[in-house]
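Let's practice the habit of predicting before peeking. Look at the sequence and jot down your guess about where helices and strands might fall. Then scroll down.
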Amino acid sequence: LERDGAGPATVNRYLAAVARVLSLAEKEWRWLDRNPLRGVARRKEAQGRVRYLSAGERDRLLGACRESRNAELFPLVLLALSTGGRFSELTGLQWEEVDFGRGIVTFHRTKNSERRSVPMSAPVREALGLLSPKESGPVFVHRSQRTAWELARERAGLVDFKFHDLRHTAASYLAMSGASLLEIAEILGHKTLTMVRRYAHLSAVHLSEVSERMAAKFITQPSRDDPPASG
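Done guessing? Here is the structure:
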């Protein structure tokens, strides 16, 4: 795999899959005396990319999307920022999967093939409402979303920013708003916390506040009535 240009993360995923099969062959099926991959070191993976929009970048981008000739671009980008959905999940969204009453969007065509429901913010509901909602059919019908996105990104003056970075932006904003890693993983559709640990440092302020509340409640100076600790 590595000779074919596969990265450490890809190699590790293949190793994990093969190791699982060999483990079954050893422990359950009794075909092997020992799993040959036991003890084989996994490749060291590079830290995941975290590129998210600053407040100024976000305002410029949304402004450029509003001015786009493609009327669907602004709702599409706003939905990406709100839900962390991937481009394929967003552009494959159907009207019957948008529940305005409950304020929920359900992605059925996901990367891991598992259905995922995420909340819609009020601005997203308003933006989608401008697209003339129907009982069924695709929400985004134009085929020029990528081109419209690239033009808006250029007008906004964004450097080193991809559409997928809107997903990172959503996760980063959630972390900075106090969401736990488990909550971020649930919204983004990750099965484990490994992929969302890259956002942990962004919740430092929130964690500091939690720590201060805990200290104030449990780690206080001993009162005068407390008996001295026995030596």
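How did you do? The chain has a mean pLDDT of 85.
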